Amino acid sequence: MNDRQSDEVAVDPATGLAAESVRIGSPFAVDPLPQTVAIEPLLDVGPMRYTAMGAVAASMMVVGFASAALWWFPAGGALVAALGSVLAISGLFSNYRTASLVLLFVHVGLFVANYSQVLR
């Protein structure tokens, strides 16, 4: 075998073109455009984005428990509101930033209300 043949590119005998340039599939198909989505590097947290979306949903559910505890068990309500604040902060990395920010203020307000009931 010749050393030159190992360096040469394989040629398709039907078309006479290099094997890398042979199109596979429909000859009428249009090449898709490359799709790029601009994401801020600071907020590109990968799979954690979906975890943050779940944290927003959990923060919404915790609002009910913290507000019910305001009248029934304020010490526990302060802890639940603190948990809701942590969930809302982690939800800031999701697509629901506005809802998460509103929930953060709601939980801080519930924490202050529950804590003031504990001090009485």
UniProtKB/TrEMBL annotation:
Q: Could you tell me the keywords of this UniProt record?
A: Membrane, Transmembrane, Transmembrane helix
User: Where are the membrane-spanning stretches?
Assistant: 78-94, 101-118
Indicate what this protein is called per its UniProt record: Uncharacterized protein
Native source organism of the sequence? Rubripirellula tenax
